[in-house]
Amino acid sequence: MTEMTFDDLPQSVGHITQGAPFALGEEELDAFAKATWLDKAYLDDIPEFPETLVEGFLLLSMLDAAAKLASPASSSTMWGLNYGLDRVRFIAPVHMGQRVLSTYEILAVEPKDNGYKVLRRCTFTVEGQDRPAMVADWWSLAFPRGTVERARERS
Question: Which SUPFAM superfamilies match (predicted)?
Answer without folding.
Answer: Thioesterase/thiol ester dehydrase-isomerase (SSF54637)
